Amino acid sequence: MNLLTAVEKIRSMEIRGASRIAKFAVETIKEYALRLEGNFDEEMRRVANLLLNSRPTAVSLYNAINYVMRYKGESVEEKRESLIRRADEFLEWIETAQKRIAEIGEKRIRDGSTLLTHCNSSTAIAVIKKAHEVGKEIRVFATESRPRLQGHITAKQLKEAGIEVTLIVDSAVRYFMNEIDCVIVGADTITANGALINKIGTSQIALCAKEARVPFIVAAETYKFSPRTLGGELVVIEERSAEEVLSREMLELGIKARNPAFDVTPRNYIDAIITEIGVIPPEMAYIIIKERLGYDRISEEELKISEID
Ligand code: RUB
User: Fold this and answer.
1) pTM surpassing 0.90?
2) What is the pLDDT of residue 304?
3) Comparing C-alpha atoms, which of 182, 191, 138, 198 is closest to residue 164?
């Protein structure tokens, strides 16, 4: 696939969700490396840099690219081999982590419970499906997730798995919270201080859950933890176009809209984070980053060999 087409697929959200974005980026890099001739380092950095700039918020993309770009070797063939090995390792990490999270997370879901999930998180859905698979009777409320309606995907996926699902509009979360036993969502990024960055509206749901004393659980692979935040960097919240929110008529009238794609849920609203290495409190985020992502990172400066818009 053409590189710019791959970047556009992420930007336009044809490929979306933190895990899928990471997987797709790694596959794209791998495919590119396989057929690359010429200056390997320079070309691979250009590819990495372009992909890195496709969407800013999910750190899975950054972690995936940094992992793969730590290839070693003298000759082009050695470098290629090393890069492909690392790409396969990361793909394996994605694959196995989600399975493990499903097994661990399922135990936190009680038989007969009603869950609420937001947006479309493959990891949160893996947990829900696993609970269903092991025979627990559960029902799920799925939020619509305006403006891109990822909740529709969630509702279809759960229904296909034979799980009872009810779609609600985002603003109905508090109305239904008393019927919910547990909220489970995915993550785009978890910061060093344990805050969660996820689909816009997640923090309101967490607020409602806390008020109603409903557990709020996050399903997140360790590659969703952000080493960049250790150095004090703030997570960039993607703001998408007003056209996703406004009709043409409203746009023509000159009405403005703001359309942030994600928001920040502080750690004191989070009861547990289910990772592939176990259930952790958000306060442990720092340790996860140190232990799991403590590899020598390639800095963004190193990746940026030329200015590409
Ligand atoms: C998707 C979203 C998901 C996380 C986790 O946002 O916020 O909850 O990415 O997903 P968008 P997963 O649709 O804007 O990409 O668990 O599949 O990685």
Assistant:
1) yes
2) 56
3) 138
